[in-house]
Amino acid sequence: MIVLGIESSCDETAAAVVADGFDVRSNAVQSQIDLHRVYGGVVPELACRAHIETITPVVRKALDDAKAGLEEIDAFAVTSAPGLVGALLVGVSMAKSLALATGKPIVGVDHIHGHMYSVKLAFPDLAYPCVHLVVSGGHTSLYLSRSEIDHEPLGATTDDAAGEAFDKVAKILDLGFPGGPAIDRLARGRDPARVAFKRTVPEDLDFSFSGIKTSVLYRVRGQDAKRPMTLSEDERADVAAGFQEAVVDMLVEQALKACARTGARRLAVGGGVACNSRLREKLEARARREGIESFFPPPCFCTDNAAMIAGLGYHLLRAGRASDLTLDAIPTKSHRPRTVNRNTTF
Ligand code: KG4
Ligand code: ZN
């Protein structure tokens, strides 16, 4: 089954052709980073307009790269939740139009589940059950997955997402947008203990990153947050390294706790922050020590892409979970289990 996947939930317009869930024939991504950089974050209205302009060329590129015509596509998969509603609508409308014009099936795909599936794209032999850590600009969540399409939420951030914290701290440090890669680069080779930040680790499997973001703000701009950013290049690098180390420690701690509590022996990480070099290094080392196998996809599958949507769409269709032309864009979807949150710090 050849599936054309479409992704437009945030600031990447993407389309991909994937055969039988694993064989990635094309993976076209048009990033809007340059458009949003000047504003220091994604501007929803601009994102929607840019998706409208690029969706057709990107779909055409995915078909061309795969050397496929629409007649060879068996079904359409599209991110329908969660994300910016106007942005999602562009992809959903395109997929519905294609399904209507060709008479082929359509399936709506959850973006977060897509990020989990990106690990499977890179490691087709990944077996279940496994714990998934999804760390992106909009989400930070843990799941116990029993198959490609069966995910039980274990915990999630109660405030900022990890990627959002990276982006906001980068803004405080005048490092530009997106902040994750900039902090990762700047922190490389620094001693993270020179500027240490408190780690907040809830007793359950949730996360919280707003405290550390505020600590960085006060550290850099003073207690009233009004002082201009006057840190030297060296000082900025030390703050970046200390911040990154704390975020990585919180992610590693909760992810390994999720494995211990569920008895899972596999830990798969997806989403843009899964590109982070220190997270890869520390999580892999800690998992190995605890006898847990860890899986990180290559960067092109970590950040937003449509191959993960097409691949997961294949499994949903095989499970009889096709949508129809009433498919709608759902901007928010709670992935948090209902638990009481008690924080501890270390
Ligand atoms: O998954 P993604 O492309 O989009 C969302 O679904 O949000 O993730 C984007 C996020 C941004 O916040 C970006 O700063 C972060 O991933 N990111 C990183 C790195 N590369 C991207 N964060 C930390 N270290 C990186 N190397
Ligand atoms: Zn994403």
Give the names of the bound compounds: 5'-O-[(R)-(carboxyoxy)(hydroxy)phosphoryl]adenosine, zinc ion
Low-confidence stretches: 335-346
Instruction: Examine the secondary-structure arrangement and name the CATH architecture of the largest domain.
Output: 2-Layer Sandwich
Q: What is the string of SSEs from the N terminus onward?
A: EEEHHEHEHEEEHHEHHEHEHHE
- Evaluate the radius of gyration: 20 Å
Count of extended strands: 12
Structural class: alpha/beta
Q: Looking at CATH, which topology of the largest domain would you report?
A: Nucleotidyltransferase, domain 5
The shape is globular
Helix content: 40-55%
Mean pLDDT: 94
Provide the CATH top-level class of the largest domain: Alpha Beta
Biggest β-sheet: count, sense, barrel?
5 strands, mixed
What's the total helix number? 11
Instruction: Please state how the strands of the largest beta sheet are arranged side by side.
Output: 3-2-1-4-5
- The count of domains is 2
Q: Would you identify the CATH H-level superfamily of the largest domain? A: ATPase, nucleotide binding domain
- How far is it from the N-terminal to the C-terminal residue, by CA? 50 Å
**How much of the residues is beta strand, in percent?**
15-25%
